[in-house]
Each structure stands twice: as C-alpha cells, then as structure tokens.
Design a protein that fits this description.
Order of helices and strands: HEEEE
Structural class: mainly beta
Shape: globular
Distance between the termini: 29 Å
Largest sheet: 4 strands, antiparallel
Strand order of the largest sheet: 1-2-3-4
Number of domains: 1
Number of strands: 4
Strand content: over 45%
Radius of gyration: 12 Å
CATH topology: Beta-lactamase Inhibitory Protein, Chain:B, domain 1
Helix content: 10-25%
CATH architecture: 2-Layer Sandwich
Length: 58
C-alpha cells in the first residue's frame, strides 16, 4: 500500500518523518498514529508499506 492508500483508511497520521535510505537510495517514511495509550507505526520504503506494528493499551 502507498501512504495515500493508508491515509484513506486511517486518516492523517499523528506524526510522520521521512529520511533518505543510505547506500540503497530512496526514502523511508514513518507514520505514527497515536490515540491515548494505543499507537500504530507504519514504515514505508519507497512509498510502499514494509513494516507495521502497534501497541494497544487500556
């Protein structure tokens, strides 16, 4: 999925950060969605989802 497709489903992230990927080239972007004690982090490499994780609090 692309960042635009993720935003259609989850909305705008609470925070985002982009940085170049050393040696390989391209860009890595991290979206974080925060809601109280719960958070979801999605990492894009060259505008494709590569990793996702979440913590879900009470």
């Amino acid at each position: 999925m692309s960042p635009a497709e993720v935003e259609v489903i989850l909305g705008q992230p609470s925070s985002s950060q982009s940085q170049p990927i050393p040696l390989v080239g391209g860009t890595q972007t991290t979206y974080t969605y925060q809601n109280g004690a719960s958070a979801v982090t999605i990492i894009f490499k060259n505008n494709k989802v590569k990793e996702k994780s979440g913590t879900f609090g009470s």
